């Protein structure tokens, strides 16, 4: 397809330095601080922004005597700039690695539940096929992972959707569901409790609203005619939850595979919650061609989930 005259002009005049300035301005909302980040003078940054707005034919910031504030068009351009800069950095890293005999880099973000078996098994298979491929693995919550996937900082994410907009932005291949369980440290006075009512007055570790786990637990208490516990510590960190449970007389709820992976350090209570989180799966950017290693790992994970 041949670019239109306007698009040809854009391709000829839009430079990486323009994108770097937009990325810096979106972070700082300040021409002075952005100029410092780019190691240029403030007048040079002002001229560069004027040039960019002329190239694009739109105003990107609202200006006052004392400051500038990014407008919706500017936010759109800044998101694009960040994605392109991230892709350019990764291009440079992959090129250098290939030049030194490597096979590129695959960056994967995953929720902790995926680390219990499917991610280790999947990466093991992938590395046997591609021993020179560098795999970067980052663990976080689905919300944070998808925000960074939107910024092009991952090739794929193993997680779940938490907002309706995610279905528009990303492709999703389901892997497996997760049943929730209540657990305490080994030897906890309530380790043989059989009802939610016996746990209401105990200290709890809860994930913050509106996480799926917190929502489902609230429903379980409501269905039992109970209020949620009020003696609580809130954290979105599974790592912090596990450590606090091990070292304190606190009650928590997490996906069963995560808890079972802790072995004898914890006890799962014999309370049938009947609660299952929506499936987690492989998430990629919609409309963006996937690299061969990304497609290969996705197919490996789907096959592993199907055979489990």
From TrEMBL:
Gene3D superfamilies reported for this sequence: 3.40.190.290, Winged helix-like DNA-binding domain superfamily/Winged helix DNA-binding domain (1.10.10.10)
Keywords (A to Z) from UniProt: DNA-binding, Transcription, Transcription regulation
GO molecular function, one term: DNA-binding transcription factor activity
Keyword match Ribosomal protein: no
PANTHER family to which the protein is assigned, alphabetical: HTH-TYPE TRANSCRIPTIONAL REGULATOR YBHD, NITROGEN ASSIMILATION TRANSCRIPTIONAL ACTIVATOR-RELATED
Family statement: Belongs to the LysR transcriptional regulatory family.
The protein's name in its UniProt record: HTH lysR-type domain-containing protein
Classification lineage: Bacteria, Pseudomonadati, Pseudomonadota, Betaproteobacteria, Burkholderiales
């Amino acid at each position: 397809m041949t670019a239109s005259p306007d698009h040809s002009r854009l391709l000829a005049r839009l430079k990486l330095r323009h994108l770097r300035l937009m990325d810096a301005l979106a972070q700082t909302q300040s021409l002075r601080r952005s100029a410092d980040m780019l190691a240029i003078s403030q007048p040079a940054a002002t001229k560069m922004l004027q040039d960019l707005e002329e190239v694009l034919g739109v105003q990107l910031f609202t200006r006052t005597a004392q400051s500038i504030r990014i407008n919706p068009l500017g936010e759109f351009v800044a998101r694009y700039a960040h994605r392109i800069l991230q892709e350019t950095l990764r291009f440079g890293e992959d090129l250098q690695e290939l030049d030194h005999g490597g096979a590129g880099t695959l960056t994967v973000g995953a929720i902790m539940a995926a680390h219990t078996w499917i991610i280790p098994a999947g990466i093991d298979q992938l590395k046997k096929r591609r021993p020179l491929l560098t795999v970067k693995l980052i663990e976080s919550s689905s919300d944070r992972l998808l925000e960074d996937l939107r910024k092009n900082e991952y090739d794929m994410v193993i997680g779940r959707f938490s907002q309706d907009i995610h279905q528009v932005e990303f492709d999703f291949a389901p892997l497996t569901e997760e049943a929730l369980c209540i657990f305490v440290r080994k030897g906890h006075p309530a380790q043989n409790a059989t009802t939610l009512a016996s746990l209401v007055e105990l200290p709890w570790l809860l994930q913050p609203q509106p996480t799926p786990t917190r929502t489902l637990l609230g429903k379980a208490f409501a269905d039992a005619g109970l209020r949620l516990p009020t003696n609580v510590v809130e954290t979105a960190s599974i790592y912090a939850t596990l450590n606090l449970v091990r070292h304190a007389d606190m009650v928590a709820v997490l996906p069963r595979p995560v808890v079972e992976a802790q072995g004898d350090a914890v006890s799962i209570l014999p309370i049938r919650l009947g609660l299952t989180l929506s499936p987690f799966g492989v998430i990629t950017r919609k409309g963006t061609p996937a690299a061969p290693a990304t497609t290969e790992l996705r197919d490996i994970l789907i096959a592993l989930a199907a055979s489990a």
